Every structure is written in structure tokens, then in C-alpha cells.
Amino acid sequence: MTYNSNTQHFVFFSRSNAARDAMRRGIRAFETMEIPGAPDGWTWEARRDGPGIEYALEYASDKDWVAWVELTVLEVPLLIISCLIEEIPDVIPELFGIRPVTPELWQELPQGRRGRRGARLLPLSSPSGENAAPAPRPRRETPSGEARPKAVGAKAIVREIFRDMPGASKAEIIKACVERGVPEQSAKGLYYHVSKE
Fold it and tell me: Is the C or the N end of the chain the one with fewer CB within 10 Å?
């Protein structure tokens, strides 16, 4: 931590340290921000306390994937997320913006995009087509001619092999599952469940 006399703010080496300082000083409504021109330089600014931050704090109180809550200049409550976007377990209300604890956490996102699951969704397509929806997965046909998606999980693989090998013994099915990459003990347990379906 160093003191930047030009802006009358302390400069921290991470967003977490800046937020921790604001919370330690008893500030509930604040925003952390990178300092332009200072690599790895972060600071925070106090914001006006209000119902937006109150609601955000209440929402985040039992969410272990929310590191802390901030408030932007435009009074938009921000949830600072400590996990990957794919790992967010809940649907986030539209009221909230989301940001990662560190920018590197979500680096694979296109510039300017801010999340998923109800929090400013990434559009499926844009006029230029750069964010076009992915093509649907190719479907394989079963012996009866009906189409079904390719199996991806262990249970789906066991189920597929079970259906594709009618009359085969349990040992033969488990051997085929192991050849497809399912651990043997998992295949044995899943065989029991699939055979009861």
C-alpha cells in the first residue's frame, strides 16, 4: 500500500486489498477501480449509501461466491464474484452488475461483456455476427433411427452403451464403459442405476 498524494487516495496492489481497506474503515458503499497508467494499482472511492447497496448486501449475505458488494457512480450495485462465470450457482437479478475479483479470472470474455444468468447477458448474435450462437451439436442416430445427442457424462455414456448392447452381460457393458473412459467403479454403480430405468 502506498499513498498517492495527487488524488488523495491510497494505492493498493490488488482489488481485494483496496476493498478490504474500505470495509475496515466502515464504508459500506464504495467502488474499487484500477488506477490508469499504474499496472496493478487499485484504489477505492466512497459512494452515497442508499437502498441499492442495502439490497445488494442483503442478497449477497448468504452467497459464498460473492466476495463483496460495491456501488458504481451511477448507483448500480455490483457483486464482486470470486469464481468463474460458469460456476455461479444462482440466477442473478437484473438489478446487479457483476465483476470478477481479478480481471484475469474472466479474461476469456469479450471486452465489455459483463456476465450471464440474468446479469446483462451476452447476446446470442450481433449485427456483425461476432457473437453468433454456436451451431447445434450433431446428432447421432440410434439403431431404431431416432436421433439423440452425443453422450458426454459418465452416466450418459453408461446409458448409451446399455441401450446399444441389448442382451450383453454386465461385465461386457462395464468393459465397454471402461474403454470409453468411465472409471470401472463408476461404471459398476451407474450400471445399476441405468438398468433400473
Answer: C
C-alpha cell at 132: 453468433
Model confidence pLDDT, tens digit, residues 18-68:
999 999 999 889 998 888 877 778 889 888 888 888 888 888 888 888 899
CA-CA-CA-CA dihedral for 23, 25, 54, 56, to nearest 10 = -20
CA–CA distance, 174 with 155 (Å, rounded to integer): 12
Residues in the chain, overall count? 197
Q: How far is CA 86 from CA 30, 119, 129, 140, in A?
A: 27, 13, 23, 27
**Model confidence over 143-192: pLDDT tens digits?**
566 655 555 678 888 888 998 988 899 999 999 988 888 888 888 888 88
Alpha helix stretches (DSSP H) within the chain: 15-24, 51-60, 154-164, 170-179, 184-196
Distance CA 47, CA 70 (A): 9
In the numeric block, the cell 458504481 is attached to 72
**111 is written with which cell numbers?**
471486452
| Confidence label for 197 from pLDDT (cuts 50, 70 and 90) | confident
